[in-house]
Structures are given as structure tokens and as C-alpha cells.
Design a protein that fits this description.
The complex is a heterotrimer of chains A (about 270), B (about 290) and C (about 350). Chain A has about 270 residues and is mainly α. Chain A has one domain: MetI-like fold (Orthogonal Bundle), CATH 1.10.3720. Chain A is built from 14 helices and 1 strand, in the order ααααβαααααααααα. Chain B has a single domain, classed as MetI-like (MetI-like fold), CATH 1.10.3720. Chain B starts with a strand and ends with a helix. By secondary structure, chain B is mostly helical. Chain C has 2 domains: about 230 residues, Rossmann fold (3-Layer(aba) Sandwich); about 110 residues, Nucleic acid-binding proteins (OB fold (Dihydrolipoamide Acetyltransferase, E2P)). Chain C contains 9 helices and 21 strands. In chain C, β12 and β13 form a beta hairpin. In chain C, α3 packs across α4 and α3 runs parallel beside α5. The chains are: A mainly alpha (about 270), B mainly alpha (about 290), C alpha+beta (about 350). Chains in contact: A-B, B-C. The interface between B and C is medium-sized, with 17 and 25 residues. β1 of chain A pairs parallel with β1 of chain B, so a sheet runs across the interface.
């Protein structure tokens, strides 16, 4: 292992890339080629599948819907998690430990348990089939996670920073936005990344809470798969396109990725 | 860090509490409501006591799903944790390729879960999938839609593919945070690689490993979308895990009472195991 | 136990060093005697830690050879060199007891449990760790942890050299001198070669028999604390050691006599100057300057009380000259005149003392 330090990681990455390659490979094939023969790369290279997705509103609206609720969720989660994480990292107050634990238990709630009650709840308040419903529903697990990550990063900032700022004549909010938030910018980036990630990959709630107008791309895919039979090329193209936003987001946080996955606590 | 007592801090956490309570408490109450009542449609409900709980706890169907769930979670934990740790240990610490490696490794984590399922569905198809072709080409009969073993094999492999990176990234983060002086001291003290692992790396990784095991336990215990898209719970009920079974009862058969009771039992199991893992692993810390 | 010789050592961290600045350590040759207490002293970035890691084998030199007792060990690993090193931050094995921590280097070398036990107890006693021997090492305070690091170095009876890389950085000020005198005492007892890296002159001067002063990857002077004080070979040494540091004033040398701003000043090495340097300077420590009836006319600018003596800052034209005056002694009022002790006034040519 010492002599070839890259051997194990390289093999592992190859294993990770194989199914992705197969998906991309398939997205450039015609349905005939997919079903008719077994080919390691597209013989009749075609962009038809992608053209269809970018021209057909039922397809591209799916992407717009998904990105909309993911972004709403991300902003909402971070905005409310920031002050809460600050409170947990700096103050002791009645019930703080229990509250923190209760927040974390929501990360352990299976989405399957909540699907039906969510459907009733959001129908009752008239938000069914809107991106807001999905964004709100996803805060169930994203807010606890964001609070947890931000609290970890904030605890790494010495308390003396706060005190120095007050001595220098900053008001609390002046300090919070002008000094503290920039100091933990990396932590905010990491928390936003995780909110993006878990909202983007979740399907069960997103699918349950939408029908037509706000249908996410992932749901469009499953429904297409069942109604139009074996349009595997189209499905593969849509799948490939869902990988793109994730890849872009990872690229932005690449330098914090390792620390981020340890939730700011190493 | 010394924290000051400040009850006004509640104002800071209030928005979080309100939002999460709206999402957690109301639905949870709904579920509890279902679980203790009987309905014959038309929004007519009758008190049912703990009948649904008894029924679920005694049903063979639930036992079978729970058994499959525990088996699946145990297998993926036993593979992913050591594998992830091993990969993290062999990763170089420095160099321009490290970021590239980390980005590529994180990729599966950002793919929507149903796409993961669909991707593996296509990848493992015996006739047109690369993996299916490969295994059958080796002379092993493989068809995950028909054979139970193949279905489990594919399911486990998919989960390993999907989530091992999380363990790698956590462990890697823990490893790079160990100061060089520890390795240098170990060299000076004449420690063998095994001793370096046992007395320096493993103790320093305890925290991240705890997170990794907890997250992997919770998420594998809640697996739904990927599994449904890959096998739909089949062949037969061979890969019908708890979440899938729950959805079948709740949305498929609309048996709200049993579904509610099952949801609560399910949630409590996860809470209990998470608490157990956490306490066991942090026990040393308290000493 | 060994005599350590560094022959024409050079080191660069980057590959392919071209310019002079690429070298973290410029070419040097150094010999450390067996059983000596050495300090490597210099500001951060001067190459002292690099030098230390070259000796311990954590780094391999880009050029040159390292010998222990005449045997070339340039390519040997830290373990083969049989050395001990204490780092800036305490390194302990968290999950082990204090006892196991101390026994670790011995057990790794396959030494019998009976001998291990004897050695561990002896060292623990020396370091006053007996009471905590069976406790978890992670529960100790910073100075306790640093004692364990130190103990792991002492526990092997055959180490060639024990090295300290700024070991008191994280120790509370009031415990620093306790540990420092402990170290000094240990050195007297076991007489093993010790090398102590620091940027703190007090630590270096109190611990070492020989101090190696470094700057910009070069050794500027090696000497006893007294030599560094009385005869700084370089203006940097004069500045860096002593508080306040040496007065360094521009001067000329004509016919074997030093002239500072028009005043003739006696200097012990003025006659040795051959007349080819670019900048000439005159150095005299505040301890060797006094008020006198005749000499350089100055104005008193500032007087600071430093306990047993006062630091007086005076000015001659644009040049500031400091001197020490004993507590209680009277200061001249208004115009005063300064006298430099000729034996301790040196001429420096491009920074280096003329000889």
C-alpha cells in the first residue's frame, strides 16, 4: 500500500464512476441501440434525448421546480439556523440540551412516517403542490442539520472575539453581521451545501406534496418511467442532468468538503 | 467553552422551534391519532386503544420486514465502515489530486435517490446492463428481478456505492486533523504502523466514526426511494424493508391505524438504537 | 551517547532550489559534543526547527552528511538513530495510562517487562509523576502531558540525543521555570546530549552550556552565554540577546581609531580593521556605557525603572544610546557626557565583528 499510495482510492473511484458512466453512455444512445444490442459506448451517438428534455416543458419545468424549492429551503434553513446555532454555542438557557436533542431526533424520523400526515397538513393550509410546501417540509431534517453544523463551526470561534467587538463599541447585530458571520463563512457554506444536498436528493416528500404544478424532476422521471414504458435513453439523460447541479455545488465547496462532512467538529 | 446563562437566548432559537414544531409535532400528533383510532372512511373515527400496536407487534409481516431491515443495516454497516476507514487511511494527505479525489468521491452523495435507484436498475440489468452482463459473463447466473440473492447483492452493492464515500470523507477529515507531531513522535518512539493506527489514528477518529456509524445506521434503516426504484421490494417481498412496507400499508392499502402504529414503533426503534450506539461509544469519554 | 557532526549541511523544502532564498538552511558545518546542553536560538523562520528535524531524521538534508560518533547516519530513520524528541505541543497517546505512555518506546523495541517496569518507575519518580502513573494520560494538565512527552524521551537509557522543540510554548508562565529547572537538573544527573530549540533568550541562556544563534538559515554565533553577552560576533546577536539590546552606531575607522559622529571612541578591535567593508558600525552594550566627566555629549531623553537598575535613553544628534545606571545613583542634569568601556566596544563590518 505504501508503494502505490493512489491504488486503493483510484480503484474505489473507478468503482464509483462505472454506474455513472453507464448512465451517461445510455443517455447518448437511441432506444433501438439500448434495447437491440449491448455496446460499451454509443455507436449511433445522439443528442435527441437531451433535446427533448430542453424543449419539452413537462421535463424542464421539473428542473426549475426542483431548484426553486431547494433554494428556498437552503435560504430559509440557514437564516433561522444562524441565530439558533449562535444561542446554542454561546449561551446556556432553560432546556437548551433537551431542545438540541429534540432537534436532532427529527433527523432520525423516517420520511415514510411523515409522508401522509404532511400531505394532510399542507393540503389543510393550502400549500399543496407549491414549491414552498416542499421547501418547508424539507426544513424538518435540514434545520436540525444546519444548526448542528453551524454550532460546531461557531464553537471553534473563541468567545473573546465577541467580547472584543463589544469593547470596540459594536452593537450585537452589528457585530453579528459585520464580524461573526464573515468569520464563520466557511461553516455557512458547508451548512448550505448540506441543505442543498439533502433537499436535492430527497424524493418521497417532494413527490407526495406535489402533483402537477410543482412536480420535481425526480418525480417526473418516475412517472415517465411508468407511463411511457421503456424510454431508457430519455430517463438516462434526465438522470445525467440531475447529477450536474450536485457536481457544480461540490466544486464550490471542494476545499471544505472533508471538514464539512465532519460537521465542523474536527 | 464557558457559556453564560442567558434566558433571552430563547428568542434566537424561537424561529427554529416554531418551524420544526410545525413540521414535526403536528404530523406526529396526526400519526399518534391514527394509531389509536379506527376509521371506516368518511372521516369517521372511533377509539381503538392499543389494538393497532398489538396487531403490528404480533404480525408476521412486520417481524419479517423488521428482520430484513436489521439484516440489511447490519450488512451495510459491516462493509461500509471498515471499507471507508481503509480507503481514508490509504488516501494521500497532500497534493493537487486530493481535492479531485474528494470531489469525485462525494459525487454519489449528491445524486437524487431515485436516480441512484434508476442508475443501478439500468447498470445491473442482466441483458443490457454492464454489471449484469459482466456477472453473467463470468458464468454466474444473475438476475436481480428474479433471484433473492441477486436482489440482495445488488441492493447492498448499491448502498455501498452510494454511501461509503460519506464514511471516507468523515474519516479523512479526522485523519488530516491529527497534527504531524503525533506521527513524528511515533516514529521517534519506534512505533510500528499497527501501533500508529491503534494508538494514534483510531483514538483520534473516535468522534467522526461515531457520527459515521450513527448517520449510516439511521439512513440505512430508513432506506426507501433507492430500494423501491431498484427492486420495488421484490422479488416477492424479499427486499421489502420497513419504510417500503409502511408505504404499502399507508398509501397502498390506506390502513391508517396500523400504519400509524407501525410508524411510531419504527421511529422509536431508530431513536433507541441511536441512543444506544451513542451512549456505548461515548462511554469511555465520560470516564 | 554520541558526538554529533553535521558536515556541509544544506536544506531546501521545495524541489530544485535556485536562488539563495530557496534554502531554508544555508550551508553549515557544526559539531555537538557528547553530553553537552545546547540551545538553538533565533527568531521564527530562522531554520532552527529545520536543523533539529535534520538531526532527528524527520527530514533528510538536501545536501551534506550527518555523523553520530563518526558513523554516517544521513539515511537512517529516526528510530535507527535512537534519539528522543519532545515537541512544541505535548504528544501523548490518549487512550493509554501514564504508565503505558512511558513504557511505549521500550515495548516497541521488545524490551522485557521487568526492565520496562524498573525504567518507567525510575523516570516517573524523577519527573514526579508517580502519583498519576495509573491514570489516563488524557486527563492530565498541559505541563503534566509535557512531562510525559519528556519521560518517553528519558526512559530509554541508550538514546544518543534528546531534542526539545520549544517545549514550553503551552505551559503556564509560573510553571515554565519549574520545568526549566527540572530539565537543567535532569541534564546534570544523566549527562546526555540535549538540544533545545527556542526563540526565547531567557530559556536558551539559562538552559544551555553552548548557544547556537541562528538567523535566516545561517549560524551567526556559537558560544557560551557569557561569550554571547560580552563578545557578540554579529550585530544581530548583540540586538537579539540582552535587554535592552546592544547599542549599534554608525562609525568610521581612520588610522586604527574609531570615530563616531566626529568623536573619537576607543574600541578594542579598531586596529584590526583593514578597510574594505561597505558599512561600519560600532557596538557597545548598555551595561558598558557610563556617565563621565568627558566623552560624547548627549541629552537625556527618557529614564525607565527596571528594578535593580534604570535604563537611561540618551541622544547624540540623531543617534539614540542606551545605558544602565544602578538604582540610587545620581543622574547628571541637562548636558551629560558618555564613556564607552574600550574592552567591550567592538567594530562591525557589514554586521560581522572585525577580527
Amino acid at each position: 500500500m505504501k508503494r502505490v499510495p493512489w491504488l486503493v482510492p483510484t480503484l474505489y473511484i473507478l468503482f464509483l464512476l462505472l454506474p455513472i458512466y453507464w448512465l451517461i453512455n445510455m443517455s447518448f444512445k437511441t432506444t433501438n441501440e439500448i434495447l437491440g444490442s449491448f455496446t460499451l459506448w454509443p455507436r449511433n451517438f445522439t443528442l435527441d434525448n437531451y433535446v427533448k428534455i430542453f424543449t419539452d416543458p413537462t421535463w424542464y419545468n421539473g428542473y426549475i421546480n426542483s431548484i426553486t424549492y431547494v433554494l428556498i429551503n437552503m435560504v430559509l434553513s440557514i437564516v433561522v439556523a444562524l441565530p439558533a446555532a449562535y444561542a446554542f454555542s454561546r449561551y446556556r438557557f432553560l432546556g437548551d440540551k433537551h431542545l438540541f436533542f429534540w432537534l436532532l431526533t427529527n433527523r432520525m424520523a423516517p420520511a415514510a412516517v411523515f409522508a401522509l400526515p404532511f400531505l394532510q397538513l399542507y393540503s389543510a393550509v393550502g400549500l399543496f403542490d407549491t414549491p414552498i410546501a416542499v421547501a418547508l417540509a424539507h426544513t424538518l431534517f435540514n434545520i436540525p442539520l444546519a444548526v448542528w453544523i453551524l454550532e460546531g463551526f461557531m464553537s471553534g470561534v473563541p468567545k473573546e472575539l465577541d467580547e472584543t467587538a463589544y469593547v470596540d463599541g459594536y452593537s450585537f447585530w452589528g457585530f453579528f453581521f459585520k464580524i461573526f458571520v464573515p468569520t464563520i463563512a466557511a461553516g455557512i457554506g458547508v451548512a448550505a451545501f448540506f441543505c442543498f444536498m439533502f433537499s436535492w436528493v430527497e424524493l418521497l416528500l417532494a413527490k407526495t406534496l406535489t402533483s402537477v404544478a410543482a412536480k420535481p424532476i425526480a418525480a417526473t422521471m418516475t412517472r415517465t418511467a411508468s407511463t411511457s414504458g421503456y424510454e431508457l435513453g430519455l430517463l438516462a439523460a434526465a438522470g445525467t442532468l440531475t447529477i450536474v447541479p450536485g457536481a457544480i455545488v461540490i466544486y464550490f465547496v471542494r476545499n471544505y468538503i472533508a471538514k464539512g462532512f465532519a460537521l465542523g467538529r474536527v | 467553552m464557558n457559556k453564560t446563562v442567558n434566558q433571552k437566548a430563547w428568542f434566537f432559537v424561537l424561529p427554529v422551534v416554531l418551524l420544526v414544531a410545525f413540521n414535526a409535532i403536528i404530523p406526529l400528533m396526526t400519526v399518534v391519532n391514527f394509531s389509536v383510532q379506527e376509521t371506516f372512511g368518511d372521516n369517521m373515527f372511533f377509539w381503538a386503544g392499543v389494538r393497532w400496536f398489538e396487531q403490528v407487534l404480533q404480525s408476521e409481516r412486520f417481524h419479517a420486514a423488521l428482520g430484513r431491515q436489521i439484516l440489511f443495516t447490519a450488512i451495510v454497516l459491516l462493509i461500509e465502515i471498515p471499507l471507508g476507514l481503509a480507503i481514508a487511511l490509504t488516501m494521500p494527505r497532500k497534493g493537487p489530486w486530493v481535492s479531485v479525489c474528494l470531489v469525485l468521491m462525494a459525487l454519489p452523495l449528491l445524486i437524487p435517490w431515485n436516480v441512484v435507484g434508476a442508475m443501478w436498475n439500468i447498470f445491473a440489468l442482466p441483458d443490457i446492463g454492464l454489471l449484469g452482463r459482466l456477472i453473467n459473463g463470468l458464468g454466474i447466473e444473475y438476475n436481480y428481478t428474479r433471484q433473492i440473492f441477486s436482489a440482495w447483492f445488488t441492493m447492498v452493492l448499491m448502498d455501498v456505492w452510494h454511501w461509503t464515500s460519506l464514511v471516507v470523507l468523515l474519516c479523512y477529515a479526522g485523519l488530516v486533523s491529527i497534527p504531524d507531531a503525533y506521527y513524528q513522535a511515533a516514529k521517534v518512539d519506534g512505533a510500528r504502523p499497527w501501533a500508529v493506527f491503534r494508538y494514534i489514528q483510531l483514538p483520534k477518529l473516535k468522534y467522526v466514526l461515531t457520527i459515521a456509524i450513527l448517520l449510516r445506521f439511521m439512513d440505512s434503516f430508513m432506506i426507501y426511494t433507492e430500494a423501491v426504484v431498484l427492486t420495488g421490494g421484490g422479488p416477492g417481498n424479499a427486499t421489502t424493508f420497513l419504510s417500503i412496507d409502511l408505504q404499502k400499508i399507508a398509501l397502498g392499502q390506506f390502513d391508517l391505524g396500523p400504519a400509524g402504529a407501525m410508524s411510531i414503533i419504527y421511529f422509536l426503534i431508530i431513536l433507541f438504537f441511536s441512543w444506544l450506539f451513542y451512549t456505548l461509544m461515548m462511554k469511555d469519554e465520560a470516564r | 551517547m554520541a558526538k554529533i557532526t553535521l558536515q556541509d549541511i544544506r536544506h531546501a523544502y521545495g524541489p530544485d532550489p535556485q536562488r539563495e532564498e530557496d534554502w531554508a538552511l544555508k550551508k553549515l558545518t557544526l559539531e555537538l559534543k557528547d553530553g553537552g546542553a545546547y540551545a538553538l536560538l533565533g527568531p521564527s523562520g530562522c531554520g532552527k526547527t529545520t536543523l533539529l528535524n535534520l538531526i532527528s531524521g524527520l527530514l533528510a538534508p538536501t545536501e551534506g552528511r550527518i555523523l553520530f560518533d563518526g558513523t554516517d547516519i544521513t539515511d537512517a530513520s529516526p528510530e535507527q538513530r535512537n534519539i528522543a524528541q519532545v515537541f512544541q505541543f505535548p504528544v501523548i497517546y490518549d487512550t493509554m495510562t501514564v504508565y503505558s505512555n512511558l513504557a511505549f518506546p521500550l515495548r516497541n523495541r521488545g524490551i522485557g517487562e521487568k526492565e520496562v517496569d524498573a525504567r518507567v518507575r525510575e523516570i516517573a519518580h524523577m519527573l514526579e509523576l508517580d502519583a498519576t502513573l495509573m491514570k489516563r494520560a488524557s486527563g492530565l494538565t498541559a505541563d503534566g502531558k509535557q512531562k510525559i512527552s519528556l519521560g518517553r524521551g528519558l526512559v530509554r537509557s541508550d538514546v544518543n540525543v534528546i531534542m526539545f522543540d520549544e517545549p514550553l510554548t503551552v505551559i503556564d508562565p509560573h510553571l515554565k521555570w519549574v520545568l526549566r529547572s527540572k530539565l537543567k537538573e535532569l541534564h546534570h544527573r544523566i549527562r546526555r546530549t540535549m538540544i533545545y530549540v527556542t526563540h526565547d533568550q531567557t530559556e536558551a541562556l539559562t538552559f544551555a552550556e553552548q548557544v547556537v544563534v541562528m538567523k535566516d538559515g545561517q549560524i551567526v554565533q556559537i558560544g557560551t552565554p557569557i561569550e554571547l553577552f560580552e563578545r557578540p560576533q554579529h550585530t544581530f546577536v548583540g540586538h537579539f540577546i540582552g535587554s535592552p539590546g546592544m547599542n549599534v552606531l554608525p562609525c568610521e575607522v581612520k588610522g586604527g581609531k574609531a570615530i563616531f559622529a566626529g568623536n573619537h571612541v576607543p574600541a578594542f578591535n579598531a586596529a584590526a580593521y583593514k578597510g574594505n567593508g561597505k558599512t561600519l558600525e560600532l557596538g557597545v552594550r548598555p551595561e558598558f556605557v557610563r556617565f563621565a566627566g568627558e566623552g560624547i555629549p548627549v541629552d537625556i531623553v527618557k529614564v525607565a525603572d527596571a528594578g535593580r537598575y534604570r535604563i537611561v535613553e540618551t541622544r547624540h544628534q540623531a543617534h539614540s544610546i542606551k545605558l544602565l545606571v544602578a538604582e540610587g545613583a545620581e543622574l547628571p542634569s541637562g548636558q551629560a557626557r558618555l564613556h564607552f568601556d574600550a574592552d567591550h566596544t567592538q567594530i562591525y563590518e557589514d554586521g560581522w565583528m572585525v577580527s
